[in-house]
Amino acid sequence: QERLVESGGGPVQVGGSLRLSCAASGDTFSRYTLGWFRRAPGREREFVAAISWDGNSIFYGDSVKGRFTISRDNTKKMGYLQMSSLKPEDTAVYYCGTAEYGSDQEYRYNYWGQGTQVTVSS
Predict the structure, then answer these.
(1) 56: Cβ–Cβ under 8 A, 6 or more apart, which residues?
(2) Contact (Cβ atoms closer than 8 angstroms) between residue 94 and residue 48
(3) Closest by Cα among 86, 77, 96 to 37
(4) What's the rounded Cα separation, in Å, for the pair 36 and 96?
């Protein structure tokens, strides 16, 4: 089992930055891909970024490339999403998830956090 808890969300102005954290408390985190997804009001959950268990493979959704950076620290069982140059369309609930065989497809993810709200306004 794995329990994931996101934190770091909140209100931010356009062009600002936030760092989201994902704290894991189970025994699979260091062996699983870590992914971040988001869901905006009225929209389906969207892939944001993923990082392999060893950090050697990283990929991003097209809408966040060049602005967001995913990272992880397996020794601390922590994952991070550094978000910069935020736009109003980045407003969403952000979820971290872990997957034994990760990808940009949410059905592959075995565990999810409860989400943290990010609101970008001008």
Answers:
(1) none
(2) yes
(3) 96
(4) 4
| Residue position matching structure tokens 């060893």 | 54
pLDDT at 2 (0 to 100): 92
> Residue for token digits 């109003």?
88
Which residue type is seen at 85?
Answer: S
User: In one letter, which amino acid is 81?
Assistant: L
Dist. CA 108–CA 96, nearest whole Å: 13
CA distance 33 to 41: 26
For residue 31, the number of C-alpha atoms closer than 13 Å in the C-beta half-sphere is: 7
Q: Helix, strand or coil for residue 90?
A: helix
pLDDT in tens, 49-77: 999 999 999 999 999 999 999 999 999 99
Task: Report the amino acid identity of residue 96.
Answer: C
3-state secondary structure at position 104 = coil
